[in-house]
Structure formats: C-alpha cells, structure tokens
C-alpha cells in the first residue's frame, strides 16, 4: 500500500509539471494551462491622434497572441515659431502636422514683430507695400537724408558668418575657371584680366557679396602702377564678405514731387575711361574724358543700377536729362547731354550753393566723403591724416588734351585745371571713388 501512495504522488507532480508547460484549453473536457508569454512589443505605434497597440506571443505556441492598447501621445510643441507667408504658429515636433497658436503676421518695417518673418513679395502703392507696410525709401526726420536701394558696404567680421558664407560660395575661382563667381573684368597692364571676382550669396534672409583677388588691382588701367588694396587692409588670396545695406542719400533739391539725391558715402571705385587715347566713332573724335562715351557712365547704368535697385525701386527713379555743357563754352571736350537714371555730379553741381555746397573751389567739409569697406577693397587711395577719399565728377577739364576730368579731393576741393597744379584726374586712374546721383519721384 505504501508503494501505491508514492506512485500516485509522482503522477500528480508530472501532471502539475505538464500543466505548467502546456498552454491553451484541453478541449471541452480539458483543463486550461499557463502561457509562457514573451515581452510586450509594439504592434502599432501610437500617434498624437490615435491609440497604439502592443502584443506578446506565447513561447510554447506562437499562434497564441495577446494584445493591449497604448494611450495616444501628447503633442510636443515647438518652442520657436514656424512661419509661412500667411502667418506664424507652433508645430508639433512629432511630425503629426498639428499646429497651435496660429496668428497672422504683425508687420513693422517689413518684418513680423512676433516671429521675425520678412515679407518679400511686396505690393507697392505710393512707395509703401500694402501688405507689410515696408517702404521703398525712408526719410530722416529733418528731410535731409533718404535711404533707398542697397549695395555691399560693411565688411563682415563675425567668424561664424564668414565661415558659413564661404562654405556656401563653394570652390574659389581661378583664371579660366570662375565657377560660381563672376569676374569683375578689371584691367591689368592694359588688358582685361580675370584676377578679381565677386559672388552674391543669401544667408538667413540677408544678402552678402564675397570678393576674392589673386593680384592687387593697379591704380591705373594701362600700366603696372601702384595698388592701395593692401594699404586699405585687403590682401590677395583671401575671401572678404560685405553686407548689402541700405544706401543713404543726401537730398540736394526738391522740386515738383521729385528729389535730387547724391550718395552720402563713396560706394565703389574705378576708372573713368580705360585709357588716355582718343578714338573715332561715326567719323567723330571721341576724347577719353567724354562722359557720354565713358566706361564709368556705362558702369553706373548697367552694373550699379541693376545691383542696387529692385524692379519696384526702379519704377520711382526718374530718367534725368544730364547737362553736360556746364564747364564753359571754351571747353572743347564737352559732350552731348544724356538721359540717364543714374549719373555723376558735375563740377558746377558740387559748387551749387542751393545744394548746400560753397561756391568756391576751396576745401569744403560738405564735399568731403568717407568710403564703404567695399569701396576700399576695390582699391581707392587712402590719404594720410584723413579718412576721406577723392571721387569722380563727370565734367571734362580742358587741359591735358582731353585726358583728364574734374574730381573732388579728399579735402573737399573741386579740382580742375592743370593736373600737375592740383587739377583734374587722368581718366585711367582707378584710385578715385564713385558717388552716384539720381532723381527720385516721391
């Protein structure tokens, strides 16, 4: 009888062990057994909109699967504003596309005061965008200055910005392979040579111009003659970056809803004409100091005008009849009047008292002009003891066989007459600054 009890106990243990290892029901008369479940795994990930599910599978029988619900996620809202042309909002960073705090832009001077969005597709009416309120121009409170257009001016000094711009510009140019850069087409030793290039790049909504050169720009186009770039702090084989900034203009005259403006700083530098030799056009002798046929007039019309002004801004620039007969009837080098959007001032205009100048040719602080960093990088000539520079006028002077024109010196003197007596400047010098003028319709 003792033996039977031991046998019965062993059978119970075996049945218990079987019950622990088996799974599922035992049919209509069978008993349920304990599942050996694996870890819970994601069956369907939850989103910000819907619940998800998890599942686990029995290790003894993969057909036995158990599922459970997982709660939907909370939105993870961005701290910074997202933005488009219609407004700004916070977006869920989980990628569900949800937005909150949507609001229209509130513009101040062309940018949203809440999120900083800059409006670009302006719809101007009377010089003011009817979407964002930005203006084609702004006037100083006293009416003496107007900001209008933009041009590369201040050098970028921040290392992080310089690095980002240089990376975005790509590989550097070289003679015969400019890449994404554009050659200035400057003269070197009398010939157009690819040795100085520029590239315009946008970064974080702002525009910049990169400048790179492998040779120093000569201060005369026809000969290897001095250079002032290094003296101004700009070296070869180095990329320099300049910000496009609003141009500040001095108001010279107001008449019939228009204003005559001159740039209140030297914006660029270059030669008046490429050499000092006369040429023939339509059987007529064209002297080097002929403003109508000059390189500097062509540059103002084709380069400066196209770079500095948007299409909308161009609409309010008047076409001006430029008087090229103001240097006296005995001057044989006067040319015909021209019709231009942008031009240089004449020797008479920079001595016009109603424009705010003195009438004599003596030094005058109102004619003294500083220069932008960009103009200095172009190689205009610095003068000891002053941070002002000389700049071109359009008037031919009657000495030197048509090879010289008037200019304003760094001291504010209107220089004409014999060059060797402190007079005008030979046309092929690149060391003088360029000060554009125009008439604006307000």
Keywords:
442 residues; alpha+beta; 5 helices; 31 strands; 12% helix; 30% strand; elongated; disordered N terminus
Task: Report on this structure.
The longest helix is centred in the N-terminal third of the chain and has 20 residues, at 2-21. This protein is an alpha+beta fold. The chain is 12% helix and 30% strand. The protein contains 5 helices and 31 strands. Strands 11, 12, 13, 16, 17, 18, 19, 25 and 31 form a 9-stranded antiparallel beta sheet that branches.
Oligomeric state: single chain
How many strands, which pairing sense, and closed or not: the largest β-sheet?
A: 9 strands, antiparallel
Shape: elongated
Point out poorly predicted stretches: 1-21, 25-30
Mean pLDDT: 89
Give the helix/strand class: alpha+beta
Helix content: 10-25%
- Work out the strand percent: 25-35%
Beta-strand segment tally: 31
Tally of DSSP helical segments: 5
The rounded Rg comes to: 38 Å
Distance between the termini: 123 Å
The domain count comes to: 2
How would you summarize this macromolecular structure in one to three sentences?
This protein is an alpha+beta fold and 442 residues long. The protein has helices at residues 2-21, 159-169, 295-308, 311-314, 373-377; strands at 41-44, 52-57, 65-70, 82-84, 87-91, 99-103, 107-108, 111-112, 124-125, 128-129, 137-139, 145-155, 182-183, 187-188, 191-192, 196-203, 206-213, 240-255, 258-263, 268-269, 279-281, 284-286, 320-322, 338-340, 342-343, 391-396, 404-408, 414-415, 425-426, 433-434, 437-441.
């Amino acid at each position: 009888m003792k033996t039977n009890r031991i046998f019965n106990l062993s059978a119970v243990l075996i049945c218990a062990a079987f019950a622990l290892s088996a799974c599922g029901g035992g049919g209509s008369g069978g008993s349920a057994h304990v599942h050996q479940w694996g870890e819970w795994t994601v069956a369907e990930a939850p989103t910000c909109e819907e619940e998800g599910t998890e599942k686990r599978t029995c290790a003894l029988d993969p057909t036995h699967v158990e599922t459970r619900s997982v709660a939907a996620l909370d939105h993870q809202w961005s701290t910074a504003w997202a933005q488009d042309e219609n407004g700004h909002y916070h977006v869920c960073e989980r990628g569900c596309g949800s937005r909150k705090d949507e609001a229209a832009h509130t513009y101040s001077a062309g940018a949203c005061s809440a999120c900083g969005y800059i409006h670009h597709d302006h719809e101007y009416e009377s010089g003011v965008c009817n979407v964002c309120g930005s203006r084609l121009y702004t006037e100083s409170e006293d009416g003496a200055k107007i900001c209008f257009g933009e041009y590369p001016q201040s050098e970028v000094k921040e290392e992080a910005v310089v690095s980002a711009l240089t990376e975005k510009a790509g590989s550097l140019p070289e003679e015969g392979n400019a890449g994404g850069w554009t050659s200035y087409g400057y003269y070197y030793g009398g010939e157009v040579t690819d040795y100085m290039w520029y590239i315009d790049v946008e970064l974080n909504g702002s525009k910049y111009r990169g400048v790179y050169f492998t040779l120093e720009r000569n201060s005369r186009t026809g000969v290897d003659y001095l250079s002032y770039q290094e003296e101004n702090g700009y070296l070869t084989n180095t990329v320099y970056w300049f910000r496009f900034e609003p141009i500040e203009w001095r108001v010279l005259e107001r008449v019939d809803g228009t204003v005559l403006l001159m740039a209140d700083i030297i914006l660029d530098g270059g030669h008046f004409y490429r050499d000092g030799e006369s040429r023939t056009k339509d059987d007529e002798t064209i002297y080097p100091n002929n403003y109508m046929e000059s390189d500097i007039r062509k540059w103002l019309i084709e380069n400066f005008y196209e770079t500095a002004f948007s299409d909308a801004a161009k609409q309010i620039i008047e076409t001006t009849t430029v008087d090229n007969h103001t240097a006296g009837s005995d001057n044989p080098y006067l040319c015909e009047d021209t019709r231009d959007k942008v031009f240089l001032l004449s020797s008479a205009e920079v001595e016009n008292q109603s424009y705010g100048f003195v009438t004599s040719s003596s030094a005058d602080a109102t004619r003294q002009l500083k220069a932008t960093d960009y103009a200095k990088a172009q190689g205009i000539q610095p003068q000891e003891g002053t941070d002002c520079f000389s700049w071109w006028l359009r008037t031919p002077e009657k000495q030197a066989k048509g090879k010289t024109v008037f200019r304003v010196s760094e001291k504010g003197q209107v220089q004409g007459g014999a060059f060797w007596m402190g007079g005008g400047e030979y046309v092929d010098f690149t060391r003088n600054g360029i000060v554009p003028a125009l008439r604006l319709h307000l």
